[in-house]
Amino acid sequence: MMDERSRSAIARRFRGFLPVAVDVETGGFDPQRHPLLEIAASIIHMDNNGLLAPAPTLSCHVLPFIGAELDPRALAFNGIDPDHPFRDAVPEQEALTRILTPIRNGVKSSGCNRAILVGHNAVFDLEFIKAAVERTNFKRSPFHAFSVFDTVSLAGLAYGQTVLARAAQVAGLGWKSNEAHTAIYDVEQTARLFCGIVNRWWELDPDRPWETARFPDS
Questions:
Q1: Which of 125, 168, 171, 191 could, after both became Cys, cross-link 54 (CB 3.0–4.6 A)?
Q2: Does residue 120 carry a pLDDT above 70?
Q3: Residue 155, helix vs strand vs coil
Q4: Which residues fall within 8 angstroms of residue 203, CB to CB, at 6 or more apart?
C-alpha cells in the first residue's frame, strides 16, 4: 500500500482517482452500433493552493469502425461529415492510444489508482469509450468502469442549471454556440465548469476532511 504522505494532493482529494474531463461526438446513441467520430480529454491538475485547473486538451478525429451505422439525426446535431477530406481522422485503435496513453501516464505520475471520467451526461461518454476499448482489444482502460463525476448533477446543485450551455453562462464561462458540439470546445467548457465548482467548494470548506482521510489502494 502506498504511504499516504507520498500521494499527490489530487490523489488525496479524490480518494485515489484522477479526474479527467472527456467529451465524445458520435454517429448515434448506441455505443455498440454507432461510431466514435471525435474524442477530446483534459486531465485535471491541482496547484499548490489546492485549486483545480484543466491541462491542455488532447483530441482526435476518429474514423468509423468497420460495419458502424451512422444515424443522420446525430450527424445533423453535431454537424460532422465523416467523409470530409480534411477531418484527418484516425482508426479507433490509434485514437485510443493518443488519448488514453497520456491519461494512464497522468494517473501514474500523480500517484492515483485510476482515472475517473468527468463529463456532462458522463455515462454516455464512458460507455462509448468502453465500447471502443472492447472493440479494439485495447490494453486496459485507465478509467473506472462505472464511477463518474457528472457535471449535470454538479451544475444542478451549484447553479440550478443542467444544460451545459446554460450552466457555463451562469458560471461566468460564456458560451460560443458556433463552437458547441465539437469535442474540443465541449470538453474545455466541461473541465472549466467542474474545476470552478470544486474550487468554490474548496474555498467554502475550511475543514477539508479529505486532506487527512485514509483510503485503500483498491
A1: 191
A2: yes
A3: helix
A4: none
Cα torsion for 109, 113, 117, 123, to the nearest 10°?
160
Which of 31, 38, 50, 60 lies closest to 130 in space, CA to CA?
A: 31
Distance separating alpha carbons of residues 27 and 20, to the nearest angstrom: 23
Using the predicted structure, report yes or no on whether residue 213 has a pLDDT greater than 60: no
C-alpha cell read off for 209: 476532511
DSSP 3-state of 147: strand
Question: Which residues does the annotation mark as catalytic?
Answer: 181
Nearest to 38 by CA among 142, 192, 151, 186: 186
Q: DSSP class of residue 209?
A: G
| Cα 119 → chain centroid | 5
The pLDDT of residue 27 is above 60: yes
93-96 contacts: CB < 8 A, separation 24 or more? 93/136, 93/138, 94/60, 95/36, 95/39, 95/60, 95/61, 95/62, 95/132, 96/132, 96/133, 96/136, 96/138
Instruction: Give the domains, in start order, of the chain with CATH numbers.
Output: 4-206 (3.30.420.10)
Using pLDDT thresholds of 50, 70 and 90, give the confidence band for residue 35. Answer: very high
